[in-house]
Design brief:
This protein has 16 helices and 23 strands. With about 525 residues, it is α+β, with helices and mostly antiparallel strands.
Length: about 525
């Protein structure tokens, strides 16, 4: 049963919830159990860690040459001869990402490799600018404070809102939130609430596009869950940290060394082609090196990888499960453009800025403001390292033209960059994020499958815990490992979440009594 988290381990939120580890032996009973973890992103790394710590023999398969999934990084040489690390872009490590942070604590107990950014500023092309720095963190004052402090909200806007439609957001619960809102788009929910247009663009559209989807295509349940996680379910607020070096150096290389010390066989650049039942139970794993046996499998793949492996494994789980996997969809593509320039930006520019109303530009990062490698390059050259994101891009659009448009919008937002010469650039055009489509919740896989020796993990997985994005990946990775550990009588991993319902009893009562059904 869930209980309030001990003060020594939770964040600043006294209502954070701990889910005790499944009981069992701390290590194995002498039997050699083998588990194949397929996918080396956050979910796979979490699963491999929890299993290896209990003495399970883990083989971690990753088709790319580097670990980290959508937070992977790799070396590249710039035109000036510098060797730097390229990645797929900025990610914010929010304070309520308890399980992800718990994974990182394995190699960094004090989380000293994470540094705070002071604000999550949002700017609209009309000139409106929002900041969360002065917004109270404790619900419900966090949401009320945002409305009162934001220039996007006027008194008339507040009086025009539909309170009956908004009240259920005061008591978001999982999985009930999907029963209420999954058949509605995020855009339709904002229309129903009559959320002010300016605030909609600055706040909720920015969040919805962090799912790499247009608000008209995104399930309103995911947007409501985000509202709970960041505003009314947690007092951690929108305060976040970022790694002080590129992802491999700060996070994944140290974790890989720890996994290696626990006997994990890490295989990068090696995709699993298929799975089939083993002759004496378990699974035969078809790899580039041959066929190997595993007693259990964790599928920690992205949407495309999961659907491809399932299609190539006609005996995996059962036909109904495989059909659901086959219906999963991938979100529209996104573009990350990173620029190395010959002169700096204004020193008052934030490390991260969310944008709306600037064409395809969704945010700007000044990497040398917080990342050591970028800062050293900027100090050596007198320049800057900038990163531009475009989410939910038109699949038919030419990425080169989109990249040019991002740079043009950068000049609008930060005019001093127009005079800068681009020393070098990298453009990453990707399409591998899950789409949380309207009405799609039922088709999304759960951690458990019809085969108890197969579990699924990743940010695409549905779970009855209030988690999203990177935290959903870490949480389901641990849950996938726990399912196997429980079967083997081994102790599992303790988990943490924000409260699983609205924090305030009076607000919960208000939502039930007067909210729209």
């Amino acid at each position: 049963m869930a209980r309030p988290a001990p003060a020594a381990r939770r964040g600043r939120d006294r209502k954070a919830v701990v889910l005790p580890a499944p009981p069992g032996r701390p290590t194995g009973d002498g039997a050699t159990r083998r588990c194949a973890v397929i996918g080396g992103g956050i979910a796979g790394l979490a699963a491999a860690t929890a299993l290896a710590e209990r003495g399970v023999r883990v083989t971690l398969h990753e088709r790319e040459r580097t670990l980290g999934g959508r937070l992977a990084g790799w070396p590249t040489e710039l035109a000036d001869g510098s060797t730097v690390t390229m990645s797929r872009g900025f990610h914010a490590f929010f304070r309520q990402y308890y399980n992800l942070r718990g994974l990182l604590r394995r190699v960094d107990p004090g989380l000293e490799r994470l540094r705070p950014l002071p604000d999550y500023p949002l700017r609209h092309g009309s000139g409106t600018y929002d900041s969360f720095a002065r917004v109270p963190r404790t619900p419900p004052w966090s949401a009320l404070g945002f409305a009162l402090l934001s220039p996007s909200f006027g008194r008339k806007d507040l009086t025009r809102m539909n309170p009956r439609a908004a009240l259920p957001l005061l008591d978001v619960r999982v999985p009930e939130v999907y029963q209420r809102y999954d058949d509605v788009s995020a855009l339709a929910l904002l229309d129903r609430v009559r959320f002010p247009e300016a605030a909609r663009h600055l706040a909720f559209e920015v969040f919805s596009r962090s799912f790499f989807a247009d608000p008209g295509d995104l399930s309103a349940a995911e947007l409501a869950l985000m509202f709970h996680i960041y505003f009314l379910g947690s007092s951690e607020g929108l305060h976040f940290d970022v790694p002080d070096e590129p992802y491999p150096q700060a996070l994944w290389d140290p974790l890989a060394r720890r996994l290696d010390a626990h006997g994990v066989d890490i295989r990068t650049g090696a995709a699993v082609a298929a799975l089939e039942p083993g002759p004496g139970g378990g699974h035969l794993v078809h790899t580039p090196d041959g066929v190997e046996h595993a007693d259990a499998v964790v599928l920690a793949l992205d949407t495309a990888g999961l659907t491809e492996l399932t299609a190539a494994s006609p005996e995996l789980c059962d036909a109904a499960w495989r059909a659901r996997i086959g219906r999963l969809r991938t979100a529209p593509p996104f573009l990350v453009t990173r620029l190395w320039t010959d002169r700096p930006v204004d020193r008052h520019r934030p490390g991260f800025l969310g944008t709306s109303g600037y064409g395809p530009l969704d945010n700007i990062s000044v990497l040398n403001a917080f990342e050591g490698e970028a800062a050293r390059w900027a100090e050596k050259t007198g320049g800057a390292v900038l990163e531009l994101h475009a989410y939910a891009a038109d699949p038919a659009r030419d990425p080169r033209g989109l990249a040019r448009a991002l740079v043009e919008q950068l000049h609008r937002v930060y005019p001093e960059t127009a005079a800068a010469r681009i020393v070098d650039r990298r453009d990453e055009w990707r399409r591998d994020c899950p789409l949380f489509a309207v009405g799609g919740h039922a088709d999304r896989p759960t951690v458990d499958t019809p085969d108890p020796t197969v579990t699924v993990a990743g940010d695409l997985v549905r779970t009855d815990l209030p988690v999203a994005l990177m935290e959903r990946a870490a949480t389901t990775g641990f849950l996938a490992a726990n399912a196997h550990l429980r079967r083997w009588g081994l102790r599992g991993q303790t988990l943490w979440t924000v409260p699983r319902r609205g924090r305030s009893a009076p607000l919960r009562l208000l939502a039930r009594r007067f909210g729209e059904s």
